[in-house]
Specification:
There is one protein chain. By secondary structure, this protein is of the alpha/beta class. It has helices at 30-35, 58-74, 88-101, 130-142, 154-158, 180-183, 186-194, 261-276, 282-286, 314-325, 347-357, 373-381, 395-404, 434-442, and strands at residues 3-4, 15-17, 40-43, 51-54, 78-83, 106-110, 113-116, 119-121, 147-151, 167-172, 200-208, 222-227, 233-241, 244-249, 252-256, 297-301, 304-309, 332-336, 360-363, 389-391, 411-415, 422-425, 428-431. The chain has three domains: 3-56, MurE/MurF, N-terminal domain (Udp-n-acetylmuramoylalanyl-d-glutamate--2,6- Diaminopimelate Ligase, Chain: A, domain 1); 70-286, Mur-like, catalytic domain (UDP-N-acetylmuramoyl-L-alanine:D-glutamate ligase); 297-442, Mur ligase, C-terminal domain (Protein-Tyrosine Phosphatase, Chain A), CATH 3.90.190.20. The chain starts with a strand and ends with a helix.
Length: 443
C-alpha cells in the first residue's frame, strides 16, 4: 500500500497518515516521514513542506480509504472471527492447523502472531490495527489463501480494528471478568464483544450455549450452538487424562491430545467448522493436533508433570486447576502472578481461587509494567483466608523453588505467561520464558 501509518516504513513518494493512538500521536512523526520521502501528509492539524490534507478524523479517513481502495481485493477471502474471554488462541490456532491439514489454505491472525503458509510473524496486539489487518489480508489474497481465522478482542472491536470487514463465520466461547481496567463494566465488555456478531451477512454463528451470556450472541445469523446443553452439537462423555481427552459430540466419538474439558469445548468448534466445510474423516484429522505453544504445555520431570499455561483470568485459572485436579496426582502446586497496569479487581479473586483449589501456591511477578511488583502481590494476597502460599517476587527464582518442591506424582502449574518469551518491566521487554527456565533447570 502507498499509504503508511508508521514513519519508519515510508518510501519515496508515499503518503503518511498521522493517527492519534493511546500512547503516541502520529502528528509527532510527520517531519520524520517527510525526511524519509513522504510527498503527501494526511493529518488533523498543522502546515508542512509537502502536499498536506487536513481532515477532521484521520482514523475515519483511513478506514474509508482502506475500504474504498482495497476491500475489493480481499472480499474473496473467507473470514473466521472468534471472540470470548478465554479459548480464542487455542481454538483459532487449532482451526488454522486443521484446515491446512485438510488441504484448505488458511492463515491465522492472533496472540501468537501472523501465520501464513510456513511463515510466522510476531504482532504487537491480539487484534492488530485495521491498517495492519488489511496488509495481512492483501498478502493472503495474493498468496491464494482461502480462509483467515482471526482472534477478535474486545479492545480491538472497541477501537475499530476490524471495521469494514464482513465475517463469514463468527464464534463465541465464553465471557468472564477481564479487561475491566479498559471497559469499566461487564456490560460494556459484553457489548463490545457482541459487535463481532453484527459484522456478518447471513453468516454462521457458532455459540457456546453453556455460557450464561450466550443469548447475547444468538442474533440474526445462521446460529449453531455447542456445549453440554446444546441441541445442535451436544458434548458428552468427557474423559480426560494427561495423555489427552476422549469425548462425544452428538454420539460421535473423538480423541484429542489436548487435556481438560475446556479444551474439548475448543476442539468441538474445530469439529463444527470442519463439518460445515464438508471435510471427511474428522476424527482422524483432529486426533494428532497439538495445542499451541504455552497452552497446557506439559513437561515430564521424574515422576511429576510441569504444565505451562497462559491462564491469566479468574475463570481460566479456575478451569485449569479444576481440570488438573481431576487427573491422578499427589499435590498441585500453582505458581501465579498478575500483570501490572491492568484490571486490579481480579487480583484478589485469582489469589483466592489459586489457594482454594491448589495444595500450595507460589505468588510471583508476571509483567509488572509500571507498577511495583510487591504492591501487585499485596493486592493478590490481601484477602486470603488460607495460608498455603509463599511470595517470591523474582519469577525465575520462584520457578526454580517451585520445581524443588515437587515430590512423587505432583503437578506444578506455571500460569499467566504461557507462550510469552519476555517479561515487561516498565516499558521494556526483557527476554524471559517460563518453559525455557524449566528446561534449563532440568538439564
Amino acid at each position: 500500500m502507498d499509504i503508511k501509518i508508521d514513519s519508519r516504513k515510508i518510501k519515496k513518494g508515499d503518503t503518511f497518515i498521522a493517527l492519534r493512538g493511546i500512547n503516541k500521536d502520529g502528528h509527532d512523526y510527520i517531519e520524520d516521514a517527510i525526511k524519509r520521502g513522504a510527498t503527501n501528509i494526511i493529518c488533523e492539524r498543522g502546515k508542512y513542506s509537502v502536499n498536506t490534507t487536513i481532515v477532521k478524523d484521520t482514523k475515519e479517513y483511513l478506514k474509508e480509504y482502506l475500504e474504498n481502495n482495497y476491500y475489493d481485493d480481499i472480499k474473496k477471502l473467507k473470514l473466521i472471527g472468534m471472540t470470548g474471554t478465554n479459548g480464542k488462541t487455542t481454538t483459532c490456532f487449532l482451526i488454522f492447523r486443521a484446515l491446512n491439514k485438510a488441504g484448505i489454505k488458511c492463515a491465522y491472525i492472533g496472540t501468537l502472531g501472523f501465520y501464513i503458509n510456513d511463515e510466522a510473524r510476531i504482532l504487537s496486539n491480539t487484534t492488530p490495527s485495521l491498517y495492519e489487518i488489511y496488509e495481512m489480508l492483501l498478502e493472503c489474497a495474493r498468496k491464494d489463501i482461502k480462509y483467515v481465522v482471526m482472534e477478535v478482542s474486545s479492545q480491538g472491536l472497541s477501537m475499530g480494528r476490524v471495521d469494514t470487514l464482513i465475517f463469514d463465520y463468527v464464534i463465541f466461547s465464553n465471557l468472564t471478568q477481564d479487561h475491566l481496567d479498559y471497559h469499566k463494566t461487564m456490560d460494556s465488555y459484553l457489548l463490545e464483544k457482541q459487535k463481532l456478531f453484527k459484522m456478518t451477512n447471513n453468516s454462521y454463528a457458532i455459540v457456546n450455549v453453556d455460557d450464561e451470556y450466550s443469548n447475547y450472541f444468538l442474533l440474526d445469523n445462521k446460529n449453531i450452538t455447542y456445549g453440554k446443553s446444546s441441541k445442535d452439537y451436544k458434548i458428552s462423555n468427557v474423559n480426560s487424562t494427561l495423555k489427552g481427552s476422549h469425548f462425544k459430540v452428538n454420539d460421535e466419538e473423538y480423541f484429542t491430545k489436548l487435556v481438560g474439558e475446556y479444551n474439548v469445548y475448543n476442539m468441538t468448534v474445530v469439529i463444527i467448522l470442519l463439518k460445515l466445510l464438508n471435510v471427511e474423516n474428522i476424527s482422524e484429522l483432529i486426533k494428532d493436533l497439538d495445542s499451541p505453544n504455552g497452552r497446557m504445555d506439559i513437561i515430564s520431570y521424574n515422576e511429576n508433570n510441569i504444565i505451562v499455561d497462559y491462564a491469566h483470568t479468574p475463570d481460566a485459572v479456575e478451569k485449569i486447576i479444576s481440570n488438573v485436579s481431576k487427573l491422578p496426582h499427589s499435590k498441585i502446586i500453582t505458581l501465579i502472578g498478575c500483570g501490572g497496569n491492568r484490571d486490579k479487581t481480579k487480583r484478589s479473586i485469582m489469589g483466592d481461587i489459586a489457594t482454594k483449589l491448589s495444595d500450595y501456591v507460589v505468588f510471583t511477578s508476571d509483567n509488572p509494567r509500571f507498577e511495583d511488583p510487591k504492591e501487585i502481590l499485596k493486592d493478590i494476597t490481601c484477602k486470603l483466608d488460607k495460608k498455603n502460599y509463599k511470595i517470591i517476587v523474582n519469577r525465575k527464582k520462584a520457578i526454580r523453588k517451585s520445581i524443588q518442591m515437587l515430590r512423587k506424582n505432583d503437578i506444578l502449574l506455571l500460569l499467566g505467561k504461557g507462550h510469552e518469551d519476555y517479561q515487561i518491566i516498565k516499558d521494556k521487554k526483557y527476554p524471559f520464558s517460563d518453559k525455557e527456565i524449566v528446561l534449563k533447570y532440568l538439564r
